[in-house]
Task: structure prediction
Amino acid sequence: MGDERSGRFAALDSAAVNQDGFLREEHAAGLVTMSSPADPEPSLKVEGGRVVELDARPEAEFDVIDEFVARHGIDLAVATEAMALEPVQIARMLVDINVPREEVVRIGRGLTPAALARAVALLRPAEMVLALTKMRSRRTPSNQAHVTNRLDDPLLIAADAATAVAFGFRELETTVPVLGDAPCNALAMLIGSQVAAAGALTQCSIEESQELLLGLRGLTTYAETISLYGTEQVFVDGDDTPFSKAFLASAYASRGLKLRVTSGAGAEVLMGAAEGCSMLYLEARCVKLAWAIGAQGVQNGAIEGINIAGSLPRGMAEAVAENLMVMMCGLESCSGNDTLMSQSDIRRTAHIMPIFLAGSDFLFSGFGSVTAYDNMFGPSNFNGDDLDDYLVLQRDWGVDGGLRPVAEEGLLEVRRRAATAVRDVLHHLGLASFDDARVEAVVAAHGSKDLEELDPQIVLDAAQGIVERPVTAVEVVAALAATGHAAEAERVMGMLRQRLLGTYLQTAAVLDEEMNVLSARTDPNDYRGPGTGYGLSPARQAEVDGIRQARTREDLLGEFGRPLDGVAFRELGDAAPGTDPREVAVGVSPSFGAEINWTLSGQSVWEALRQVLAGIEEEECVGRVLKVRHTIDVGLIGLTAARLAGSGVGIGLQAKGTALIHRRDLPPLANLELLSVAPVITAEMYRTVGQNAARHVKGAPLKPLRNPYTEETIGARYHASTVGLVAIERSASQPGAAPVDLEVVR
Amino acid sequence: MTRAFSGRPLADVTVDAAVRGELEADDVRIHPDTLREQAAVAEAADDERLGANLRRAAELTALADEDLLRIYGALRPGRASAEELAAVREELLERGATRCAALVEEAIASYRRRGLTR
Result:
């Protein structure tokens, strides 16, 4: 290629998607999503109740993962039946509404990893959405948030945790830029999570032993970052084995803590030890392992690895297939979507769609509820500044994505209560002191960059104090009560009581805001085709529909009907045909200057009219104003005016700002010039309309008048208002009423 | 009736009790019977694996936090010799944690074969 460039390609090069990296498949390196030549043929040999061959590998060659899966990860009671099925038969079961979820799970648990992967790989994307809808464990969908900040500011953690719960998140995950801060974050989030509503679960993602310690102290209520990997090398590099993870899972449960494991495509490739296998097959090993160790659920869907999976063909589909395998083993799915997978808004939105439409136990395993720069996991695929987008998407599709609109005023109050409660508890326990000004700054803050830097030692000292005393959740409850935060004290105690009940250890458990456990046991997904399964209740539907931006006709009347200052319009008698050959008639619409005083461009109707009249006058013609009452159509308004004008030339001017020039001998739709895009019409353009109308009268050359074309989403931005304004015009119109002359009173 | 590990009834695990300083760590720890009940719930729903995990957990309620952390550490790759793991297994058996001991026994065999002992 020489220096010659296509302008089209130069523009494409600068598209956001081209900041993403894309790779060609390379099987040997494991850079392949759905299947690889190195993936084993599914096989299972059982002798005397013992698995002696798993996916083409004899027992003597089992690695530590094979071993654990062979001993615990295959339900031998159904394995013969399950492994006899062709992959396509299993794939069809997934989408067949006549095969209940429980039956697919029964079969799924009898499959080997290779057989599991092979079946889901056969599904097309739309089939995956149906399968997800049917197969997720819990009936009611839910969502999880990341709550972190750059400073590990405990007041901000609390305020943001409260914010997340206000928006509807039921699990909150924090982590730290500074490991030593973790206990302080965990404590702040435990309190903050219980302010807006009761029952949100919290976790602090750090190194395995330290995470366990926080749980043992009662400062967290669940654990998630218990990582599993699909090859032995990477598992061991990750400083664990399936056996140590199995022990860890039981250790958490022994203290009444919920736990899920984490896996997902890409980790093995990034560690250079994928053994040439596909991401889907390696993940199938993780999923079977998760079930084998007795975890109730899995966080997958590529997780951070989405950037590797997403660089390859079918990467997004692979991520969803991972979630589906989890569901096929009857486990809770915490479904990824938690890493910014693209610079392109189009692409990152496309990534969430299957799970978003189908619903999941947790649609995101970390929606970044804070602003992106404060997300210490790295930006999530959706972040705090995307919340309105997400709420609108819920409303667009009529789906329950787990979130709800929040009013600004209520949110400030919730943030204040959370920040104050944590401030008071830290002070009461002698851990740290923050003044009122800091609380107020946190309440108002968009993110930590709005706050003054915090001496890092303050948080470290508080965290160290929590570990060394040690501060337990019981003391937190007492401190909340002692400092006047009775409601929060009760709710944190409520979370401790859950640890004694143990019911939220069941698969896919969340607590609703009334502290009911919703799980695969109490709220099993019963989707069996249209008309079954989870649907939005009328109350929930109203909540999803009630985004704060939605406006009523009354709102529009208030906005566009704001009174005009210093000008009024008075209707005179029926308009008679004019006789002055220089007369140009300006017909205005029924609500002009009455119900509607302001145009879509933000100018008053008087400003638009004044400019038109001035333009007519500048061309030595005479303007006359009529109100056309019988129609709201701007063409007919203009034509009506033209027929009454002495010159035969008229202008139609709608209250919302649309304008055109008409002549009495033309058909209604054949106007001379039209300014149709009301939101972008300037004062100067209204003047030109007046001038050109007069030039039509004189037969003079016209001034150029072009609709201003723009890249903005004029339609999306204004059509909602336009529809409302048209409705107002319609009710102001009087069919059969004759046009009247209109006097401008100043 | 649900009781805490200490035997304290759930109904007595309250904010007032916390304020009065009555609640010890074992008053907010799950009781092994509760875990076994939840294991039975999982098994009744055909999830034997979750059930098995909760039954191991019931055994582990007898261990102190420090012991849990220590045994977890010993099971990590390359941390303990086969002999040390065998001692862990013995310790678990002595504490009545037979299911956990069986897990460690499997681990010893697997770690030996795959070179994951110290």
Q: What stands out?
A: Chain B has six helices and no strands. The longest helix of chain B spans residues 98-114. The radius of gyration of chain B is 17 Å. The CA atoms of residues 78 and 116 of chain B lie 5 Å apart.
